[in-house]
Specification:
By secondary structure, this protein is α/β, with parallel strands linked by helices. It has two domains: 110 residues, 2-Layer Sandwich (Nucleotidyltransferase, domain 5); 194 residues, 2-Layer Sandwich (Nucleotidyltransferase, domain 5). Helix 9 packs across helix 11.
Length: 356
């Protein structure tokens, strides 16, 4: 089956047409897509070879535990979850509608970033909140970046020529958004993002985890509105908030603010990697993926430097020269450390074929 993959991010959109053997037949990217225009113009004759469409959708809420064929009802459910992923969900909905208008005869499948984490046990997914709240609303850890984590866990096992069964893997998806996932045999058992994509690691513009009492203090003690706090936490925090830059690692520079931001970023990541290892009871493979994970060897080295007690060690030359999928482990290191190119498109195509 030839699958058109539509991957909408918080500010960009990627299109890939994958042939029956996952060969890339066509590709395009809109780097500053606003969710309102430009997508329809992309669908020239190249894309009309598609037999089905797969859409990345960040939030599946409590009801979507796997890929779903999109109809009007499914689209309404996806749109209703926009408040839980305000940077991504509206863009996914806009992408679905644009493709429907341009290629109305093709079946479309929603592939959810949260679905991979549906296997979290209750001890990992439950928030210690009042029972009345949890009974009334779906207050749980959903987790995100599942498409990337699922692919990276499986690909790392293949790269190392090891069976996925029983493998204890921590995948680090480090991009503008960032999260970790602990996978046992290719099944998620813990992750750093939670009810929304705001929890967990320090990100480009998102704060990651902060004391909820701090949020309440800003509202009750400083008079900030919920909207002002949300805007600050989602779009003006993280590396951007610490440095006054865009939050992209390539823009950070080398001043005191940049050095502090990098230290905060790495400290949080090391701490959370260790937490993921505790959830697994040990570690076989540490995986870096995503834009930062793939292209910032200094971040990989800094993370590994503080994890020697877990058996993690990277080879300086291998790490510096890594390109594409690569084993960067130091010789003799008991834990293998690898870099995997993010290929959410392959995971989406796999899910589309499975459901159709």
């Amino acid at each position: 089956m030839v699958v058109l993959v539509v991957n909408t991010g918080s500010s960009s959109l990627k299109l890939r047409l994958l042939g029956p053997d996952d060969e890339v037949l066509a590709a395009a990217e809109l780097e500053a897509w606003d969710g309102r225009s430009g997508l329809e113009d992309q669908f020239d004759e190249r894309w009309r070879r598609a037999e089905a469409v797969g859409h990345r959708v960040v939030h599946g809420g409590p009801d979507f535990h796997g890929p779903a064929v999109i109809d009007d009802g499914v689209l309404e459910q996806i749109e209703a979850l926009s408040a839980l992923a305000p940077l991504h969900q509206p863009r996914a909905v806009a992408g679905i509608r644009a493709v429907r208008a341009a290629l109305p005869a093709l079946p479309e499948v929603a592939c959810f970033d949260t679905a991979y984490h549906a296997t979290l046990g209750p001890e990992a997914s439950t928030y210690a909140l009042p029972a009345a709240w949890r009974e009334r609303w779906p207050l749980r850890r959903f987790g995100f970046h599942g498409l990337s984590h699922a692919y990276a866990a499986r690909r790392s096992a293949a790269l190392l020529a090891r069976p996925l069964d029983g493998m204890r893997t921590v995948t680090c998806h480090l991009g503008a958004g960032a999260s970790l996932c602990a996978s046992l045999g290719g099944r998620s058992v813990d992750t750093t993002m939670g009810f929304t994509p705001l929890e967990g690691l320090v990100m480009a513009t998102r704060s990651g985890s902060v004391d909820p009492g701090l949020v309440l203090w800003l509202q009750n003690g400083c008079g900030m509105s919920a909207e002002e706090v949300a805007e600050g936490l989602e779009r003006r925090s993280g590396l951007a908030g610490l440095t006054g830059t865009s939050g992209d690692f390539r823009d950070l520079g080398d001043d005191e603010a940049a050095r502090l931001a990098t230290a905060v970023y790495v400290h949080r990541m090391r701490r959370e990697i260790a937490a993921m290892v505790a959830a697994l009871g040990g570690l076989d493979t540490l995986v870096f993926t995503g834009g930062v994970g793939e292209h910032q060897p200094s971040v990989r080295a800094a993370a590994a430097e503080g994890l020697g007690f877990l058996g993690v060690a990277v080879d300086t030359d291998r790490n510096a020269c890594a390109s594409g999928d690569a084993d960067i482990s130091a010789p003799g290191a008991p834990v293998r450390t690898v870099v995997v190119t993010a290929r959410e498109d392959l995971e989406i195509a796999r899910e589309v074929r499975s459901v159709l």
